[in-house]
Amino acid sequence: MLVVLTGGTGGAKLVQGLSLEAGPDDLCIVCNTADDFVLHGLYISPDLDTITYTLAGVGDATRGWGVKGDTFAVLEWLGKYGAETWFKLGDRDLATHLTRSRLLREGWRLSQVTERLCRALGVEATLLPMTDDRVETRIVTSDSEISFQEYFVKNRWADKVKKVYFAGAEKSQPVPGLLESIRDARAVVVCPSNPVTSVSPILAVPGIRAALTGTKASVMAVSPIIQGAPFSGPAHKLMAAMGWEVSTYGVAKAYSDFLDVILIGAEDRELKARIEEIGIRAAIAPIHMNSLDDKKRLARQVLDLL
Amino acid sequence: MLVVLTGGTGGAKLVQGLSLEAGPDDLCIVCNTADDFVLHGLYISPDLDTITYTLAGVGDATRGWGVKGDTFAVLEWLGKYGAETWFKLGDRDLATHLTRSRLLREGWRLSQVTERLCRALGVEATLLPMTDDRVETRIVTSDSEISFQEYFVKNRWADKVKKVYFAGAEKSQPVPGLLESIRDARAVVVCPSNPVTSVSPILAVPGIRAALTGTKASVMAVSPIIQGAPFSGPAHKLMAAMGWEVSTYGVAKAYSDFLDVILIGAEDRELKARIEEIGIRAAIAPIHMNSLDDKKRLARQVLDLL
Question: Does residue B140 sit in the same domain as residue B262?
Answer without folding.
Answer: no
